[in-house]
Design brief:
The complex is a heterodimer of chains A (about 60) and B (about 350). Chain A has strands spanning about 1-5, 15, 25, 35-40, 45-50. With about 60 residues, chain A is an all-beta fold. Helix content of chain B is about 30%, strand content about 20%. The mean pLDDT of chain B is about 95.
Chain lengths: ~60, ~350
């Protein structure tokens, strides 16, 4: 099962597995913003996320 | 029972693309592929990709006679030729999707300004729906007449319409398009000779491109306001595809990615052929025509430039698909009551 959380950046839908562990990184399928899982309540279908620190990368300039 | 469709002017690139798509449509029967020049020749001699796909010969029969056997006709003839034929077909009662520019503009005076001719049938202009389903879906449902958009115009409009609708745009919009060689059609010229064209980044219409009229018309329709469009078009070294880069100046308070995302999502939330591409990961982080080739997708993305309060609105389409035959087929599906994705659901190729 997955828990759906809305992306703060683009409004896309992030799917968080209901067995995700705190500290796991999930990302938005639309804009790629990464979030760290803070907590998951599988029974209530709720997940708390916070923005993960992102490392800038060179992607072909 | 299948709907009988025919294509007048089926030997061009758009005609070929229509044949490719229609050959896989379960609800239609292609009754004629018309070409005077190639009459009697097998379709696959001109469109080699259709060998083994369609067993059909071009007909040189009179277009009116072709139309009399059809429920719907695609008119894939040059600008100026359609306007001579269309009134006769309208009188016959056949449904029409015109691929030329002759019925795209609603204001007859715009033809004089942009196409340099007096439109001989101004009363007919209002009867043709502009065939971009993302903007005119409800009008297209059950419509009898539609006019497929210009390829560069389609690319620019799809990226700009949500911003116009949101009321964010200040001042003139600058549109830069880069288009592949198939946008110039199948007829060769010295300028399209391989030695002359290979490797070019050719500014073929730095100003005065005729698609400006369509872009301004459609932005007016979606926003109820006037927007001035300054467009430059370049031929680049690809066969298919368009990248449209539009520079939209806004208030500094609108330099907010969440707000811009919202404008796009509000308009395109349920669109089957719009994909948002503004990704922090992967190689293709913004729209790129390479990634839509062969499909009806319009990939749309944006970036913000706080230095000049500018939104860079990007879109990539396959000019022969979303820019022509794909949008036309999507419109046909709406006109005839089919699921609008029918025969258009192929994923793009990668790598290509």
């Amino acid at each position: 099962m997955v828990i759906k959380v809305q992306c703060n950046e683009c409004g896309g839908t992030i799917e968080v597995p209901d067995d995700a562990l705190p500290g796991e990184i999930v990302s938005c399928p639309d804009c790629g913003t990464e979030y760290e899982v803070v907590s998951v309540d599988a029974r209530a279908g709720r997940a708390e996320l916070r923005p993960a620190e992102e490392v800038k990368e060179d992607w072909g300039e | 029972m299948s709907t009988k469709v025919s294509i007048i002017g089926a030997s061009g690139y758009v005609g070929g693309e229509l044949l490719r798509l229609l050959s896989r449509h379960p609800g239609v029967e292609i009754v004629a592929a018309h070409s005077r020049v190639h009459a009697g020749e097998y379709v696959h001699r001109v469109h080699p990709n259709l060998r083994g796909v369609l067993s059909l010969q071009f007909t040189g029969e009179d277009p009116v006679s072709v139309a009399s056997k059809s429920d719907l006709v695609f008119l894939s003839v040059p600008h100026g030729a359609s306007v001579k034929l269309t009134p006769k077909l309208v009188d016959m009662g056949v449904r029409i999707i015109d691929m030329s520019a002759d019925f795209r503009l609603k204001d007859p005076s715009a033809y004089k300004l942009w196409y340099h001719y007096e439109h001989p049938y101004p009363d007919l202009l209002g009867r043709f729906v502009y065939g971009l389903p993302e903007l005119h879906r409800e009008e297209l449902r059950g419509a009898r007449y539609a006019s497929a958009p210009g390829c560069n115009a389609a690319a620019a409009i799809l990226a700009l319409a949500p911003l116009a609708r949101s009321g964010m745009i200040r001042g003139t919009i600058v549109v830069d398009v880069k288009v592949g060689s198939s946008g110039a059609g199948g007829k060769p010229s010295l300028a399209t000779h391989f030695s002359e064209r290979f490797g070019v980044v050719r500014p073929y219409a730095p100003a005065g491109h005729r698609h400006v009229a369509e872009i301004e018309q459609e932005l007016r329709a979606v926003s109820g306001r006037e927007h001035a469009v300054a467009m430059s078009a370049h031929s680049v070294n690809m066969v298919r595809g368009i990248l449209s880069t539009s520079h939209v100046f806004v208030d500094s308070g609108d330099m907010d990615p969440a707000k811009v995302w919202r404008a796009y999502r509000e308009m395109y939330r349920d669109e089957p052929f719009i994909r948002f591409v503004r990704d922090k990961k992967g190689i293709f982080r913004y729209p790129d025509p390479k990634i839509v080739v062969g499909s009806n997708f319009a990939d749309i993305g944006f970036e913000l430039d706080p230095h000049t309060s500018r939104i860079v609105a990007l879109s990539a389409i396959d000019n022969l698909m979303k820019g022509a035959a794909g949008s036309a087929l999507q419109s046909m599906n709406l006109m005839l009551g089919f699921d609008e994705r029918t025969a258009l659901d192929a994923a793009p190729l990668h790598p290509i």
